[in-house]
Amino acid sequence: MSADLGVGEAAMGQSVTGYALGTALTAVPLAARTAGWRRKRLLLASMAGFAAANTVTAFSSSYALTMGARFLAGVAAGLAWALLAGYARRIAPRTSRAAPSPSR
After folding, report:
1. Please, are residues 14 and 67 in contact by the beta-carbon 8 Å criterion?
2. Burial class (CB in 10 A: 0-12, 13-18, 19+), 61
3. What confidence tens digit (pLDDT) does each residue in 65-84 have?
4. Exposed, middle or buried, 68 (CB in 10 Å: 0-12/13-18/19+)?
């Protein structure tokens, strides 16, 4: 990728950092902001955003565009991970689920 975009390997390695920042900075705020939304539609939108961002990354010839796409892929993945925890709990047998914490 670094040769195709005309940047050094270290600069291209920052695409991993951009992805991680997208996830870390937006996963919790997006999960909180979308708490009342329909889960299935939100998960599908997240997957579509992830696919679109990765498609842009695959065809991009610009380092800046690639970095932006990697950040957006991280945003979509962070939201998906937040949603998947709830789905995992629902599909697990009741005997395998963690007990709810007592109310204070």
Report:
1. yes
2. exposed
3. 999 999 999 999 999 988 88
4. middle
